[in-house]
Structures are given as C-alpha cells and as structure tokens.
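Before going further, learn to read the protein records used in this course. Taken together, the tokens spell out the fold as the letters spell out the chain. A record is reproduced here so that you can trace the correspondence yourselves:

***
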Amino acid sequence: MSEYFTYIAKSSLKILTSRDNLKIHTYDPNDPYLWSSCVEERIIVFTTNHKEKLDPALLRPGRMDVHILMDYCAPNVFKKLAAMYLDYVEEHDLFEPIEKMFREVKATPAEVIEQLMVSKDPDVALKGLMGFLESKKMIRESEESEPKEADEE
C-alpha cells in the first residue's frame, strides 16, 4: 500500500498519509516532496462532472492513465451493492421490481448505498430503496408533464 495518496476535491489538493495514522495536510505548492517524480506509488485522483471542459493537455497519455466513468446504478451494480450492504443477501422478492425500476429511473450508486445503509434488515432497506426509486420516478414524471400542460393552455 502506498504511503501517500493525493486527491483533488472542491478545488483543493490534500495529501493523505497512511502509515499508522490518517493525517490530512493542506496543499503546499512549494513542497518539493509533493512534486518530486522520484517517489514511488503515488496516486492522484482527479474528479470532474465535465470532462469536456478540461484542458486537453491534462487528458494526454501519461498525464491521466486511467479514466473511470462513474455512471448511474444499473441492475447488476445494484445486486453487488445489495450483497455488500445487506450481509450477502443474493436473492429477495424485491430484487426484480427494484431492477425494473432501475431501467426507468436514474439513481447514483451513492444514492442506492444511502438507502441500503438505513437498516441491516433486507426487508426494511429494500422497501426504503423501492420507495426512494418510486418517488424519483414520480418527480421525473411530474417534471415531464409540466411543459405539456403549459403548451395546452
């Protein structure tokens, strides 16, 4: 495991050291250790919601080696999350209706995890997730129907 992990979040660079204690340091552009290329096992994670707005020089090979799309939750991802957060439950009566809802409603893995963490009881957590997805579907449908109502008047 690497000693230093760096990441950019909310326009600030932090260094996380992970030997015995977790320490968070504020970015210092004059720190020669941070910018030295002699240090092994350094990981820098950049996040953005708008890759198209980044300077193309940042995206050239050798600058950012791995690009990971953090997309909306799909049925197969949901099953993996449910197994992880609900003590390895691999089948449940609500899996099929929830998977169907994921084909109709967009939800991020973080939103799904938040719902699954409500309870270790699979019935409670999955019913909560189903309710969450149904409310997202109702909001989406009401937003889609609003312009049509305005056009009719």
Remarks:
- Confidence is low (pLDDT under 50) at residues 1-25.
- The first helix runs from residue 32 to 35.
- The chain has two domains: 4-59, 75-152.
- The radius of gyration is 21 Å.
